[in-house]
Amino acid sequence: MARGGIHQRLAAAALQEESNSAVAEYLLNEFAWGRMSPQQMQSIAALAMQDVEKAVEGKLLRDLKFLSKIGNEGRYPNNMYRDLMRMVDSRYNLCPMTTLEIPSKMGETMANLLMPHELFLHSCMQNTLTNFTKLFCQGAKKTCNVFGNNARTHLH
Questions:
Q1: Running DSSP on this structure, what letter comes out for residue 52?
Q2: What is the pTM of this model?
Q3: How confident is the model over 34-57, as pLDDT tens digits?
């Protein structure tokens, strides 16, 4: 037997209606133009569904909100990289980039690069010296002497 009045049932039915997702539309378009694999599309859609479930629970998705607002909500695309790097730098604590001069037909060009060996060592040592010694100095009872006698000052 139906519960509630007709208006309550109609309102509940309206909430249950399915609508098209802007994210799904974008993902399908990217796939159709060959810019995204089916695997990437599925992963992003699954993550979007997790976010929807969190939002239904009333949880604020600060990082997603921040990403949606970079470049003044897309109005200034040239500022997007800068805004994004502010978030990446604070969240991931990347090692500094190395600036190199690269010869080209037009003359010398400056390029910023993350050197693989520096990135690797930085990520290994980012948390603690203990993790670094466990990884590189297996069985060592004292501090690994890779960086000299005063290793701690070299790591931080």
A1: H
A2: 0.47
A3: 998 989 999 999 999 988 888 888
